[in-house]
Write a structure and sequence with these properties.
By secondary structure, the protein is α/β, with parallel strands linked by helices. It has helices at about 5-10, 35-40, 60-75, 80-85, 95-105, 115-125, 145-155, 175-185, 205-215, 235-240, 290-295, 300-315, 320-340, 375-390, 425-439; strands spanning about 50, 110-115, 135-140, 160-165, 190-195, 220-225, 240-245, 260, 360-365, 390-395, 395-400, 410-415. The chain has 15 helices and twelve strands. It is globular and about 65 Å long. It starts with a helix and ends with a helix. Bound molecules: pyridoxal-5'-phosphate.
């Protein structure tokens, strides 16, 4: 499939890339010596498109597009050899799993390559055994990828799903952990929550919540849709039992790729059974539940090996450097929104809140009028105008409003700032919002 991606990225770290594109905290020449213009040049967005929606889909860099095509050609040349015997393309995926496990700081055998977050969450929630009356604790800010399998558990097995509210903006790490602690009952079997909420971009204190679960003998399932590629993941140390994430969002891997982390897959403490697998009859000391979940008939080996190469791409820049860059860009978005429309417009954690709660997602209403947040049509109109007139992709989100609010749900624009974005994209966004809200 070729190699040398990491080597080809080394020049990006050079300090001789010329002047920053624009001054300011989110200029292209960031700390760490990375020339962000060269990083952005690796992406092949349509001319004139400003892409601020990595929370839905990222984009595959050119080098990795080439690697993907090369892998597809190799598969096409001898498909059965590829499936049974090619160590990078074969069904077991041991080499790619080990590379990706290393990237998320997990033991090699504890990672399964999946198609997306949705698949990983369903593998866990459909593969665990619940009893009627068991309780699962989740939040009011979850995505349908988690709510859907929870709904199946409720309907089919009589599991009670309890949703705790999350104030927006969130107060503190301690308050969030306390919210879970208070809601736990003797029937609680699982805590299921997003690492970063798709609605407001609140980053949950994953290590603290998982430690709480562990201390009570409760299992933890994390929806990591906005983790991989945005945050420097340390899955083993954080102590979650299951973590499902995509390769195709912030990480900029190929479409329809993802990872599922299973803590201690070999001893399998929660007795997960492998659904969507050819391997449940083969489980043994040498074939773990993670290995069995990798055996799913034909899978997209060319995409999976490219996903492993995406880890090389990110490592060549630096995981911590990427996390800081994304955080700085997002802080610039939040700061600009508050400057224009006041503190009340921002539903993401504020800049004066604990930094650990913030993420690369920024959710705000482009208006100083507090009632605008309840006007779904207004927020959609602005998003549509940004796309159709200015070719800027953002998305809208919605989530339950607190009791006593003027409407049932809050509506926001959601902006994702990834490694291919820069301060100039943010300037363009706010100029376009000004135009879109002027009429
Ligand atoms: C929080 C969250 N979970 C799950 C998903 C679904 O992700 P995937 O496409 O990887 O299944 C999304 C998609 O936007 C999301 O925001």
């Amino acid at each position: 499939v070729g190699s040398g991606i990491a080597a080809s990225l080394v020049p990006w770290r050079s300090g001789h890339a010329g002047p920053p594109e624009r001054e300011g905290s989110a200029g292209r020449q960031a700390r760490g010596g990375v020339d962000w213009r060269k990083v952005a040049a690796q992406f092949s967005f349509a001319p004139g498109l400003t892409y601020l929606n990595s929370g839905s889909e990222g984009s595959l860099p050119r080098r990795l597009q080439e690697q993907f095509s090369a892998a597809l050609k190799r598969w096409s040349a001898s498909p059965s050899f590829a499936f049974f015997s090619d160590p990078e393309l074969d069904q077991a995926q041991k080499i790619n799993r080990a590379r990706l496990a290393d990237f998320v700081r997990a033991p090699a055998g504890d990672v399964v390559i999946t198609d997306n977050t949705t698949m990983g969450l369903a593998m866990v929630l459909m593969g665990l055994t619940f009893s009627r009356g068991d309780e699962v604790l989740t939040t009011e800010h979850e995505h349908y990828a988690l709510l859907s399998p929870l709904n199946v558990l409720a309907q089919r097995q009589g599991v009670s799903i309890k949703k705790i509210p999350l104030p927006s903006p969130a107060p503190s790490v301690d308050a969030l952990v306390e919210g879970f602690r208070r809601a736990i009952s003797p029937r609680t079997r699982a805590l299921c929550f997003s690492h970063v909420n798709w609605t407001t971009g609140l980053q949950m204190p994953i290590a603290e919540i998982c430690a709480l679960a562990r201390s009570k003998g409760i299992l933890s399932v994390v929806d990591g849709a906005h983790g991989l590629g945005m945050i420097d993941l340390d899955l083993r140390a954080w102590g979650c039992d299951f973590y499902a994430c995509p390769g195709h969002k912030w990480f900029n891997g190929p479409p329809a790729t993802g990872l599922l982390y299973i803590r201690d897959a070999r001893s399998n403490p929660w007795r997960l059974v492998p659904v969507i697998s050819e391997g449940s009859l083969l489980l043994s000391d040498t074939l773990t539940v993670a290995d069995a979940l990798q055996m799913r008939g034909s899978t997209n080996g060319p995409a999976f090996v490219t996903l492993a190469r995406t880890a090389d791409f990110a490592d060549a820049i630096g995981k911590r450097v990427i996390e800081e860059r994304i955080g700085r860009l997002a802080d610039e978005v939040k700061g600009k929104a508050v400057t224009r429309w006041g503190q009340g417009c921002l539903f993401s954690p504020h800049l004066d809140a604990d930094k650990r709660l913030r993420s690369g997602l920024s959710a705000f209403v482009p208006s100083a009028d507090p009632s605008a947040a309840y006007d779904a049509a207004f927020v959609s109109r602005v998003a549509d105008r940004l796309l159709t007139k200015h070719r800027i992709w953002v998305r809208t989100t919605m989530f339950p409003a607190p009791a006593g609010s003027p409407g049932p749900q809050i509506n926001t624009l959601r902006v994702s700032t990834n490694i291919f974005n820069g301060g100039d994209d943010i300037d363009r966004l706010f100029r376009a919002i000004d135009e879109a809200t002027a009429t």
